[in-house]
């Protein structure tokens, strides 16, 4: 294969739109505790994905504490051998300061003080430290207690069972409210998570004690969980999971990458640089856990200023947070903003049946293309226009939709929304919502594209 073809193949395999770089930027300068469940140890355990993720974090100037269960005789030899196989990590595994610390128990404040001193004496000179624990250490209670004692904001639990599954659907995200619901008497069992109650309790306690977020995934899924939009397990966070606010200059870069990803998937139409700039300048972002930009949408008004009309443009959310109603929250914020600007109506265009169902469920009515401003169609592709469905929403008062995580509603009837709330099932792009409309006998499919 020639050099040009090799380069082309590498570009095809590369992650698009800076996913890994985006998440690495979040971890830079912070500390992460990664804990392997004792039940994961065995001859079939492969450490390649784990060591690759650790190497990426360390090169990123992230402090990594690896919680490793082992017996006193063997120690962490297997782990250290796998880490040394990563050339970038070799300098961190030799020298005057051993990278290994040990702990058998963490019972009181004095133990916590000693642990902080031992770990920092290593981390201040090396960004990677291995913390060995007995094979019978309680998991995940012990590593989460260590993270709390060290005041580490991020914990990754590597469990052979992976993230939490509700039926056939992975619960990709849960904030404290959803976790509190699951921890009520009988709710975890009703949702099919009775065998994970101990995990849920430990995570809830850690979030209450100051840990900002906890990821649960398989050892082989760690890179995908930490560095991709889709993830591979379940992410638990403090507080309300989502905040919608106007896009800032600092978030424009990531928002543009989301629009590009949506365009490459066929979910959004291709846009010129000027068109992208217009969406960003008028855009809103859905921030998850205070930092993740998980969705974007714009309210275009300048082309239709004389008619006092707005257009919903570039509405897109990432798959990672499917079932969390981000699209509905974004659209709700746009409609509220339209009301404050005294717009007469907003309109949206959609190609696919899922998109059409979504806008209809959000209270939009289908209209003819001629019923929206003519400026919309100046220079517009005629073939695309012939396939479009156009929707209009008249502005009276800001709507107040009820948004409930769909994953929990589907798997546990006791947690389901009231009859006045419709559950829209997940799409393969990641916009799902529960909307304040009468429930239909057959839940409609969500949108997958907008114009």
Topology:
Layout lengths: L2 H11 L5 H9 L3 E6 L11 H12 L3 E7 L7 H8 L15 E3 L6 H15 L4 E6 L7 H10 L3 E5 L6 E2 L2 E2 L2 E2 L1 H7 L4 H4 L6 H12 L4 E5 L4 H6 L6 E4 L4 E5 L2 H16 L8 H9 L1 E6 L3 E9 L8 E9 L8 H15 L4 E6 L2 H9 L3 E3 L14 H6 L1 E6 L11 H6 L10 E2 L10 E2 L16
Parallel strand pairs: 1-2, 1-5, 2-4, 3-4, 5-9, 8-10, 14-15
Antiparallel strand pairs: 6-7, 9-10, 11-12, 12-13, 13-14, 15-17, 16-17, 18-19
Helix pairs in contact: 6-9
The helix fraction, in percent, is 25-40%
What is the CA-CA span between the terminal residues?
40 Å
Tally of domains: 2
Largest sheet: 8 strands, mixed
Beta-strand segment tally = 19
CATH superfamily of the largest domain: Acetylglutamate kinase-like
Specify the CATH class of the largest domain: Alpha Beta
Shape: elongated
Report the structural category: alpha/beta
As a whole number of angstroms, the C-alpha radius of gyration is: 24 Å
Mean pLDDT: 81
């Amino acid at each position: 294969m020639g050099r040009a073809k090799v380069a082309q193949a590498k570009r095809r395999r590369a992650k698009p739109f800076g996913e890994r770089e985006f998440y690495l930027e979040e971890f830079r300068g912070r500390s992460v505790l990664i804990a392997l469940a004792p039940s994961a140890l065995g001859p079939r355990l492969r450490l390649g994905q784990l060591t690759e993720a650790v190497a990426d974090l360390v090169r990123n100037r992230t402090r990594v504490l690896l919680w490793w269960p082992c017996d006193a005789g063997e120690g962490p030899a297997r782990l250290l051998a796998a880490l040394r196989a990563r050339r970038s990590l070799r300098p961190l595994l030799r020298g005057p300061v051993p990278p290994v610390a040990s702990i058998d128990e963490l019972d009181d404040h004095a133990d916590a003080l000693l642990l902080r001193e031992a770990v920092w004496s290593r981390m201040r000179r090396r960004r990677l430290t291995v913390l060995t624990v007995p094979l019978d250490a309680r998991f995940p209670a012990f590593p989460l207690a260590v993270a709390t004692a060290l005041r580490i904001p991020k914990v990754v639990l590597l469990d052979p069972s992976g993230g939490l599954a509700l039926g056939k659907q992975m619960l990709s995200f849960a904030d404290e409210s959803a976790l509190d619901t699951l921890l009520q008497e009988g709710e975890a069992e009703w949702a099919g998570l009775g065998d994970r109650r101990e995990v849920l309790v430990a995570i809830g306690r850690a979030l209450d004690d100051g840990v900002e977020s906890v990821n649960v995934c398989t050892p082989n899924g760690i890179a995908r969980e930490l560095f991709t939009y889709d993830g591979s397990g379940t992410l638990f966070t403090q507080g309300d999971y989502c905040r919608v606010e106007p896009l800032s200059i600092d978030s424009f870069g990531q928002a543009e990458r989301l629009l590009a990803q949506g365009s490459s998937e066929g979910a959004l139409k291709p846009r010129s640089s000027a068109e992208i700039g217009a969406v960003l300048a008028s855009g809103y972002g859905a921030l998850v856990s205070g930092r993740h930009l998980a969705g974007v949408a714009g309210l275009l008004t300048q082309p239709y200023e004389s008619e006092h009309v707005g257009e919903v443009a570039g509405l897109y959310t990432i798959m990672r947070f499917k079932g969390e109603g981000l699209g509905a929250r974004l659209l709700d914020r746009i409609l509220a903003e339209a009301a404050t600007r005294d717009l007469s109506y907003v309109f949206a265009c959609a190609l696919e049946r899922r998109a059409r169902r979504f806008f209809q469920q959000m209270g939009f009515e289908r209209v003819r293309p001629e019923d929206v401003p003519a400026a919309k169609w100046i220079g517009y592709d005629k073939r695309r226009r012939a396939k479009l469905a156009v929707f209009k929403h008249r502005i009276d008062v800001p709507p107040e939709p009820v948004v409930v995580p769909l994953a929990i509603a589907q798997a546990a009837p006791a947690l389901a929304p009231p009859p006045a709330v419709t559950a829209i099932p997940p799409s393969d792009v990641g916009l799902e919502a529960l909307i304040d409309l009468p429930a239909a006998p057959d839940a409609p499919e969500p949108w997958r594209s907008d114009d």
